[in-house]
Amino acid sequence: MPRRPFRHNRRKHSPPEEKPPENAEENAEENAEIK
């Protein structure tokens, strides 16, 4: 079984294009905590 690239998984977890501008602020805070 080939190893999945981390980039692909990360991109699926947080798609910036699908994120609406209203949730962008909330997501920024969540990303800061996760980082």
UniProtKB/TrEMBL annotation:
Residues 23-35 have a biased composition (Acidic residues). Residues 1-13 have a biased composition (Basic residues). Residues 1-35 are annotated as: Disordered. This is Uncharacterized protein. The lineage of its organism: Eukaryota, Viridiplantae, Streptophyta, Embryophyta, Tracheophyta.
